[in-house]
UniProtKB/TrEMBL annotation:
Name of the protein in its database record: histidine kinase
The UniProt record lists the keyword Transmembrane: yes
Keyword GTP-binding belongs to the record: no
EC number in record: 2.7.13.3
């Protein structure tokens, strides 16, 4: 790309340098009386001092011709070219002397009108200066370019007469005293000026990308070169008297026709080929378009489609979008998706969708929308980024399916299940409550009769009976604590109201209560600023206390116990974690431990009833969350639980 732009610039600079050099040499030639540089072909016309001077001035004007702000000096140069050439034209036209031809040097080489430019040269400079002035305004640019091409034709004819070696006496007065280097410099400087208006007139056709311009570029060298070469060939034969003029003309005609026919045929074959190629491509495009239209029709039939720009402004919606949202196309286009927002989703949720702005990903999810008349509808939505030529996301296509019916059914089913589950749970808890409550009575009777028996008959009992009594008392003790735990479990969550709880205070209270154990076991409890949650006070306290006491209880014997408590805010809930560096739990037991009375160790290894984590599970469920553990044997455990973030939930 850069090379293509640079090349013409370099060519332009070379041409300007050449013009400046040649014109300077000619001027020096005049001062130093060096005729070889004044007329390159011996005996032919000389380039006059004035011509060289005007070329010198003109080349400066060409360099700056495109810049809007012309320094005054350039305008002065242009006007100087205009005045000198105009006065010379007047001199030639009316055959008078205005004393401008030998202003700077004396012409001793010309017999007629010494120092005066030929009419052709003066006319070319006059037109050239007009053309330079014309370039200064957009209105006159095109006319200015036409003038330049006129100069090119004049200079070209003059150059041809030199190459074909036409003697001066055969030339018209107009051309007679125009030097070969003058013609060439006119060709160069005019072509340069024509290239300054590439988007206009003939230059545009000449350098354009269309097929007409292509054809012109192929034909032009031929149209100019072939007749020119043939004329040169014919004239040299005639000059040598090698052939007769009649035969020469016939030969010229036959050769010109043959070459023209061959060349144009070759070009036509090429054109036909590219035409066939183009037709093929056109057909392909038509087919692809048809295919795409079919895809679009199919998509429109089943999906709600919309396209928005980088700022979320909707630019396109299909009929289905309007049909379902009840908004008209005119009302939607130019708006954001706020127009169909139901305000159901949290900020986090919406931010997640906009995260695809800078990515390649497609977002897929369920969105609750609102129609113009306020009805809610659910859509399964895919948001796909569309790329521009540079590979940047510039538009987003949203393809949606109306899933309102399915969602409503799901919600209905879910609420049915929830109700059923709630009833069953209540029944179960009722049962556990009654059972544990009623079991306490016979257990108390057994315990007190055991005590009576043991005190009254202690001395009559042998050693074996005493041991049996001790076992019975231990078993009833354990049974009593199991029943108490069961009773606590069934009571959980019934007495309290949801309140705002500062978890930092809860943890501090627990640490205070467990102070002795913590010191004895050398335990460290680390926690950073924990959030406030809306929950059941006793429940939350019990939950955290159970997890902390378990972490201490199941510590490694040879390592200080470290407990880390953290909380992370997620979309609609807060995720807590209680991590320890204790004995860990094997993978296969990680689900089982949350069931009631499930323990992994013998009573004499670790104290406990196996109900602590069941408590935790129930408390977490009461807060609309979940509990789970990540652990491996000997590598500590990390208990996670979530609590619905009622405070920020929308
Ligand atoms: P308990 O602590 O009374 O045995 P839990 O319900 O609190 O009952 O715990 C159930 C079982 O889960 C425990 O017996 C123990 O095997 C395992 N467990 C609980 N917490 C941890 C922990 N932090 N590290 C290792 N094992 C644990």
């Amino acid at each position: 790309m850069i090379k293509l732009k640079k090349t013409p610039k370099i060519a332009e600079q070379l041409i300007i340098a050449f013009i400046l050099l040649l014109s300077t040499l000619v001027m020096l030639g005049w001062f130093l009386n060096y005729p070889k540089i004044l007329s390159i072909i011996p005996g032919s016309a000389t380039m006059k001092f004035n011509s060289a001077l005007l070329f010198f001035l003109s080349s400066f004007c060409v360099i700056k011709s495109k810049k809007k702000k012309h320094p005054l000096i350039l305008l002065f140069f242009t006007l100087l070219v205009l005045i000198i050439s105009f006065l010379t034209l007047i001199e030639n036209l009316f055959d008078i002397n205005l004393f401008i031809d030998n202003l700077f040097v004396e012409d001793i080489y010309s017999s007629k009108n010494p120092g005066r430019m030929s009419t052709a040269t003066a006319l070319c400079f006059f037109l050239f200066s007009l053309s330079l002035l014309g370039l200064r305004s957009d209105k006159t640019k095109k006319g200015s370019q036409n003038i330049v091409y006129f100069i090119i034709i004049i200079a070209f004819i003059s150059t041809v007469t030199f190459i074909l070696d036409i003697p001066a006496e055969y030339k018209t007065d107009f051309y007679k005293t125009m030097a070969i280097h003058t013609s060439i410099l006119f060709l160069l400087i005019s072509s340069l000026l024509a290239s300054k208006t590439p988007n206009l007139g003939f230059t545009r056709v000449l350098i354009g990308k269309q097929s007409g311009s292509n054809l012109l570029r192929k034909l032009l060298p031929f149209v100019i070169l072939i007749p020119f070469l043939l004329s040169y060939f014919l004239l040299s034969l005639l000059n040598k008297n090698a052939i007769e003029i009649n035969f020469g003309i016939v030969l010229y005609t036959v050769i010109l026709i043959s070459i023209s026919v061959t060349y144009t045929s070759i070009i036509s074959i090429g054109l036909n080929k590219s035409d066939t190629e183009r037709k093929k491509l056109e057909n392909n495009i038509i087919l692809r378009n048809q295919e795409l239209m079919q895809f679009k029709e199919a998509l429109d039939r089943i999906a709600i489609v919309s396209i928005s720009d980088n700022k979320g402004i909707i630019k396109y919606v299909n009929n289905k979008f309007c049909e379902i949202s009840k908004w008209s196309r005119e009302e939607i286009i130019g708006n954001t998706y706020e127009i169909t927002s139901s305000n159901h989703h949290s900020k986090d949720f919406i931010e997640k969708i906009s995260e695809i702005n800078d990515s390649n990903n497609t977002w897929i999810g369920e969105i609750k929308n609102k129609t113009k008349d306020g009805k809610l509808y659910w859509t399964e939505t895919a948001v796909i980024p569309l790329k521009d030529k540079l590979g940047n996301n510039f538009e987003y296509m949203a393809i949606k399916q109306d899933i309102t019916e399915r969602k409503e059914n799901e919600e209905l089913l879910a609420s049915k299940y929830v109700k059923q589950l709630e009833t069953k749970n209540k029944e179960l808890e009722q049962f556990a409550y009654i059972a544990s409550h009623d079991l306490q009575e016979p257990l108390r009777t057994i315990t007190s009769f055991c005590n009576i028996l043991y005190t009254e008959y202690n001395e009559k009992l042998d050693e074996q009976a005493k041991i049996s009594f001790r076992f019975i008392r231990q078993a009833t003790g354990r049974m009593s604590s199991l029943i108490k735990a069961l009773l606590d479990y069934s009571r959980l969550g019934y007495e309290e109201e949801l309140i705002l709880i500062d978890c930092n205070i809860v943890i501090k209270d627990i640490i205070e209560d467990l102070n002795t154990t913590i010191k004895l076991t050398n335990t460290k409890i680390e926690f950073k600023k924990l959030p406030e949650i809306s929950g059941y006070k006793t429940g939350v306290r019990l939950l955290l206390q159970n997890l902390i006491t378990n972490a201490i209880k199941f510590r490694k014997k040879d390592t200080d116990c470290i407990i880390k408590i953290n909380a992370l805010k997620k979309e609609n809930f807060i995720e807590f974690s209680v991590e320890d560096n204790g004995i860990g739990i094997a993978k296969e037991y990680q689900k089982k431990i949350f069931a009631i009375f499930q323990r992994l160790h013998l009573k004499n290894e670790y104290e406990g009833t196996g109900i602590g984590l069941a408590h935790c599970q129930k408390i977490v469920n009461l807060h609309g969350g979940e509990i789970w553990v990540e652990s491996s044997l000997n590598n500590g455990s990390k208990f996670y639980f979530t609590i619905l973030n009622e405070k920020e939930k929308k």
